[in-house]
Amino acid sequence: MAGKSVTRADLAEAVYQRVSVTKDYASDLVDQVLETICATLERGESVKLSSFGVFTVRQKGKRIGRNPKTNVEVPIEPRQVLSFSASALLEARMNRASSAAGALVSQDLEKGDTA
After folding, report:
1. Domain extents for the chain?
2. DSSP state for residue 68 in the 8-state scheme
3. Is 60:78 a contact under the CB 8 Å cutoff?
4. Strand 53-60 relative to strand 79-86, pairing
């Protein structure tokens, strides 16, 4: 199920709503957290967020790729890629939400609701 993307502003608004701080402070707080995560990843270190997941930087070696249109081989230089591994708790939470949404859709279909 595709949904709306959450922006920095959305995160700042959520912090503002849940914590007794100003909107500017909430926005600065979100910016600082994200900047700290980015700086840590730039240094090649992992970011582990308990009950959420782990962001890691992986090294990919040089390899030969192929242009699918022309079938010409093209060298792909070594690079760093970002990967995310969700925690078991986050995966369980997502699966509960997914199965609950699926159950609601199934109930609607059984009733003949298609709106």
Report:
1. 1-43
2. T
3. yes
4. antiparallel
pTM: 0.72
| Local confidence pLDDT in tens for the 115 residues of the chain | 467 899 999 999 999 999 989 999 999 999 999 999 999 999 999 999 999 999 999 999 999 999 999 999 999 999 999 999 999 999 999 998 777 666 554 555 565 554 4
What is d(CA 89, CA 98) in angstroms, rounded to the nearest whole number? 14
Which residues are 64's β-sheet partners? 75
Q: For residue 105, report the phi and psi dihedrals to the nearest 5 degrees.
A: -65, -45
